[in-house]
Amino acid sequence: MISFVVRRFLLLIPVFILISVISFGIIYISPGDTAKNALMSPAGGADEKAVEEFRIKHGLDKPIHIQYIIWVSKVIRGDLGYSYMTSEGVSDAIFRTFKATLQLAVVSMLISLLIAIPAGIISALKHGTIIDDIFRLFALLGVSMPNFWQAYVMIIFFALYLKVLPSSGYGGGDITHIILPAVTLGTGYAAVTMRLMRASMLDVLQQDYIRAARAKGLPEHIVIVRHALKNSLIPVVTVAGLNFGYLLNGSVIVETIFAWPGIGNLIVSSILTKDFPMIQGCILFIAVIFVLINFAVDISYAYLNPRIRYETKN
């Protein structure tokens, strides 16, 4: 298992290199001149002398491959550069906003899994009954309901009508401020995960080893928990891992509606101001998060289903 983890991690190196190339190249595939965009005045002009000094200061006058090498060498040391707009360190800005996004992502994912897994199991066990129909109806509503609409409905009902929760803001990470955005995100992902959990459980319950376990006279709860649940979680773990990656990368719409100071808001503001170092850093950070989460999901398969083979033997 350890040797597999090491080999699998080594395979991520070319992926990280490709990610760095794409992240760095954002400056050169974007329209306009980077220096001029950074120094553009409200009237639409930029002083040529200032533009040339800006290029020299930030190394934009060097050949592209030299710029890339310098940028990568700094990234390896954890230095993602500085914002053109605020002069704040890109790394500092990302980790400052990521703290808020991480809090929101963890709570949202917990809500999603606490709803989806029990609902999916019950729906599968009660297949074809009114209980199954009710769960499937709620799952369909959750999939069909846009996040922005649900967010506004929850603000109107809980913040304006009942006045039991704040409508927006961070509040220093206070639990009352995180409830509405977390429920908005969590219930949306729960609907998708619940349907997948139900389908996976139904498929596993029809397998021969489940019939054999029941034929041996094992109690039903033992059959479900020890034999069926573990194998049915494999596709759920995959989707949950991807969902968590999306949550960690910032849910832009929800963060904007609830004025949540996460990385999603940082990305949007950076794009609007053409703050290329910040955009580069955010793209690199988001991509690395996705790669590492997928790596963790792959490793988890070995525990959930030992029958899965990760290597081809000649």
What does this 3D model show about the protein?
75% of the residues lie in helices and 0% in strands. It has 314 residues and is mainly α. α6 packs antiparallel against α11. The longest helix has 36 residues, at 90-125. It is flat. The model has no long low-confidence stretch (mean pLDDT 82).
Descriptors:
314 residues; mainly alpha; 14 helices; 0% strand
Main sheet overview = none
Roughly what fraction of the amino acids lie in strands? under 5%
- Rg from Cα: 24 Å
Structural class: mainly alpha
Roughly what percent helix?
A: over 70%
- Distance between termini? 19 Å
Number of helices in the DSSP assignment: 14
* Low-confidence regions: none
Mean pLDDT: 82
What is the H/E order?
Answer: HHHHHHHHHHHHHH
Shape: flat
Q: Tell how many strands the DSSP assignment holds.
A: 0
What topology emerges from the helices and strands here?
Layout: H1 2-10, H2 12-29, H3 34-39, H4 48-57, H5 64-76, H6 90-125, H7 130-144, H8 147-161, H9 175-205, H10 208-215, H11 220-248, H12 252-257, H13 263-273, H14 276-304
